[in-house]
Amino acid sequence: MSELKGAAIFGQSGGPTAVINASAAGVFLEALKQENITAVYGAAHGIRGILEEKFYDMSKEDPYELELLKTTPSSALGSVRYKLKNAEEDETDYKRLLEVFKKYNIRYFFYNGGNDSMDTCNKVSKYMQKVGYECRVMGVPKTIDNDLWGTDHCPGYGSAARYIATSIMEIYHDARVYDQGQITVLEIMGRNAGWLTAAAALAKHAGYGPDLIYLPELPFDMEKFLDEVNDLYRKQKNVIVAVSEGIKDKDGKYISEYGTELAYKDSFGHVQLGGLASTLVNFLKAKTNAKIRGIEFSLLQRCAAHLGSKTDVNEAVLAGEMAVKYAVEGKTDYMVAFERAAGPEYKCNIKLVNLSEVANKEKKVPLEWIDENGTGLKQEFIDYALPLIQGESSPPMVNSLPRFARLKKVLATEPAMCR
Amino acid sequence: MSELKGAAIFGQSGGPTAVINASAAGVFLEALKQENITAVYGAAHGIRGILEEKFYDMSKEDPYELELLKTTPSSALGSVRYKLKNAEEDETDYKRLLEVFKKYNIRYFFYNGGNDSMDTCNKVSKYMQKVGYECRVMGVPKTIDNDLWGTDHCPGYGSAARYIATSIMEIYHDARVYDQGQITVLEIMGRNAGWLTAAAALAKHAGYGPDLIYLPELPFDMEKFLDEVNDLYRKQKNVIVAVSEGIKDKDGKYISEYGTELAYKDSFGHVQLGGLASTLVNFLKAKTNAKIRGIEFSLLQRCAAHLGSKTDVNEAVLAGEMAVKYAVEGKTDYMVAFERAAGPEYKCNIKLVNLSEVANKEKKVPLEWIDENGTGLKQEFIDYALPLIQGESSPPMVNSLPRFARLKKVLATEPAMCR
Questions:
Q1: According to a count of CB atoms within 10 Å of the terminal CB, is the N or C end of chain B lower?
Q2: Which CATH number is A6-155+305-361+391-402's, of 3.40.250.10, 3.40.50.720, 3.30.365.10, 3.40.50.450?
Q3: Given the residues A57, A93, A119, A145, the one annotated as active site
Q4: How far is A77 from chain B (nearest CA, A)?
Q5: Which residues are listed for substrate binding in this entry (chains A, B) (predicted)?
């Protein structure tokens, strides 16, 4: 275990979740305790904040507000979608990062995000190694999509899954209130992996869920879909369908793009798409006489901190804390990951995975967890997902509305050489 | 005070809310305690259930499940949108109702709903009076739209308002996470009255709300809208707009119908509308270079029992209870209503309003509560609405998912003459 004294910086990247700030709280609160960490910075808009030398001095924040980050959704520091070029092709960004790291004596780099962000993290790590700048680099996983490789699951998923399951259970009650019947199409996020849409099966498990669930792991067939919906509509009048935004046909074309042929083109010739739910609703309206309603969970599913999973929040905090502890102990070039312990009780241990093994890979829902008809999830999925949504987390309330963290965001200034 | 012995029937009508079942619980639990009430029925799908002689014997239900109705959203008995003809024009339905009332010795009729439902309730009341059938008729108010005349507010509104305010506060965090800016358009229910959309101002009051709020109480001008959005977009990059689904232009044309000209027509010539949010998103996309996102709260806003207002739930229960108590005491032909007591502390008393005064009227947001620019609400609205969302109500949880009421729904059989 080698000692390394210097500043730490933390960045948030990719789409927000209900708990990405919980990991931030874990990193900040732990880093502020560490003697070897001489300053704790939060990068504005992830890697871009470092490139632009725009980051905040987290020691200036009220500890109570840092605590509140645990139940404040989205990315409090701002997020970014920025893909670093390969260093072999273009070193510009890397040189700039190195310059900033040296200027502020940054020796700890923590990056919180999904696949793309782990790619960024990996590239930074490898570059710093190559140029011999000693810096401990740790990835902290997050994504509602739950598609990161090398970890049992990702912080952010449990809370989004709890929101989706709860909302569907409520919609289930509303969508069958009249006796003339209704087909309800629910569009859920997840471009390539169906984990979030699969969470609809938790609602079904609890007694009030969709009749049909379509994941992007399997090709989607419009005619089979129509038959399945029609069949149930005839039998039971009320039908609820959950679809992943990312479903594609057997040729790999997104079903949401089917709308293109029908859609209005603006004066620039741009197609104005209504989204997948709207495409399917229009299709069903043309093909059936049923009352049809499409519902998109949209941003709500990734920012609903009021319906957080306590398990998820705690694990997100832990992932941040452990990233700091491991880095201070001398570990680098890893992503913090979860490994489920064997046994009937749910328990996850922290492990470390090489960044290069995680970057740019995707973990999908195992095909053997999908039922024979391709429209539902088996018990294996329930056993996997149900523990992840356990425990109720919500922000403290003021006037019965959430009280979220308010950061001062004091810009960091160049440090004196010693603290 | 005259004694009247007989059965009671309760029906739910119109769009569901998070607390319509709370009023049902109030009616059922109170009616089951009353000695003069010989049987307690719940009508399947409102007035239609009575016409079709399909109603449930509520004494067969587990009391715990009736308690759970207080936190179970939507209409547990099923709802209906059925307009009774005027008795002068067509007596068929009324004769049938009378027949069923006599057969089951129904002497208490409780009807839970909004404007249209109070019209039904009023018509039934007047008919029974006309033919001299003694029956106590009481309306129980409910509507997320909050547009019932004669009452300070309506059960259902407070919970929907709390959901809308909370969700907007969360979306606010998500919708400004990247630094390239975004215009977010939120579509909120309310066809003619803007109460629900106005609830967005509660989010703003709490620090994280829409920049612009457009209610149907004022004519909507597309060019003014574009200017206002563009102006803010230039200044602050992130703009959140809340619009009522019912906004119309100065000629009374729904803005959502503007999409008609752009929309795809199916093979029958039917226009497939994407809704108001989609119309405005397409409009802004064509007119600006901004990233635009439309979000419809859809059914979620009227069934989110997990984010209920305890004040709302308690008042909904109370409205049901008091309807029964007043009816047993001899009152008839009224709707139960709320009257706010003067003073700094929120307190509402129950009062009775003549059904004929309530039927088919609408209460809108007072124009003097809307700010000069027509894009925000004044403090008067906050003072009015904030007390209504106070207190946290959510269903009991099993596996961290809601446990809703499960009714047996035992169909009533013709009663013996005496109990």
A1: N
A2: 3.40.50.450
A3: A145
A4: 8
A5: 143-145, 189-191, 245
Burial of A210 (0-12, 13-18, 19+ CB in 10 A): buried
ipTM of this complex prediction, to 2 decimal places:
0.95
Over residues B290-342, the pLDDT tens digits come to: 999 999 999 999 999 999 999 999 999 999 999 999 999 999 999 999 999 99
> CA B43, CA B411: separation in Å to the nearest integer?
10
CATH topology classification for B6-155+305-361+390-402: Rossmann fold (3.40.50)
Sheet holding A182-188, edge to edge: A212-214, A238-244, A182-188, A292-296
Query: According to the model, what pLDDT value does residue A309 have?
Result: 98
The span from the CA of B66 to the CA of B407, in Å, is 8
The H-assigned helical ranges of B104-252 are 115-131, 157-174, 195-198, 200-205, 222-236
Catalytic entry in B116, B145, B312, B333: B145
- A318 vs B189: CA distance, rounded Å: 40
| Residues of chain B positioned with their CB less than 8 A from the CB of A203 | 401
What are the tens digits of pLDDT across the range B191-241? 899 999 999 999 999 999 999 999 999 999 999 999 999 999 999 999 999
Q: Is the pLDDT of residue B94 over 90?
A: yes
- Other residues' Cβ atoms within 10 Å of the Cβ of residue A377: 25
Q: Which residue has the tokens 């670093």?
A: A84
Quote the CA–CA distance of A115 and A15 in Å, as a whole number: 11
pLDDT at residue number A285: 87
Task: For residue B276, give the amino acid letter.
Answer: L
- Judged by DSSP in three states, B323 sits in helix
Q: Which two tokens stand for residue A156?
A: 């952010």
Pair A410, A56: CB distance under 8 Å: yes
Q: Flag if B169 and A282 touch (Cβ within 8 Å).
A: no
Q: The tokens 């209704």 sit on which residue?
A: A182
B160-303 belongs to CATH 3.40.50.460: yes
Which position has the token pair 């938790």?
A: A202
Pairwise CA distance, residues A184 & A171, whole Å: 9
